[in-house]
Design a protein that fits this description.
- The protein has about 190 residues and is an alpha+beta fold.
- It folds into 2 domains: about 15-65, Thrombin, subunit H (Beta Barrel); about 70-165, Methane Monooxygenase Hydroxylase, Chain G, domain 1 (Up-down Bundle), CATH 1.20.58.
- Helix content is about 45%, strand content about 20%.
- It contains 7 helices and 5 strands; from the N terminus they run ββββαβαααααα.
- It has helices at about 60, 70-80, 90-105, 105-115, 125-145, 150-165, 170-185; strands spanning about 15, 20-30, 35-45, 50-55, 65.
- It has a 5-stranded antiparallel β-sheet.
- It is elongated and about 60 Å long.
- The model is unreliable at about 170-185 (pLDDT under 50).
Amino acid sequence: MPAKKLDFKTGQYVVYPTQGVGKLLRIEEQTIGGQKIKMMVIDFERNHMTLRVPLDRAEISGLRPLTSARKLDEAINAAKGKAGAKRMIWARRAAQYEENINSGDPMKLAEVVRDLQRRTATDTMTFSARQLYLRALERMAQEFAILHKMDLEAASEKIEDILGVPKEIDLNATEEEEEDVDETEEE
């Protein structure tokens, strides 16, 4: 079965699995080793990086257009589900989560978010689990932000709201309220 030809246009947002969402700036021709190769120049503004991908290797590299809003919504809904079994040792699970994040697949990103999200405000995460969770959430939020025309932070918050992830506890809020009370009593 012949591979389908991916059709990318300048200015289009694309997903490169290991880097996330970038913008296709142009297609240029470069001479490498005496051969002329058409290269896609992709800007990852958030990472301050420009990537050149040979046009004939785009599909093999996993480069893809943004997913549809419907498919992304399906992935977010999948992240609402019950966390997967945690019978594996953490190092193996972390490696699997890393592989899922670098796949660029919205459903696999949703699995990582689902498994690592906090269920209650008092839940704590290890540093490495939190880093993996935030990377998976950011990758989902990158596509969500572009599809819904919002900034990345708002997209992350919206996804967490949809999932029902509890907000961080603001330990300073109580102290500030107590200080205000003290000031009024002195007057």
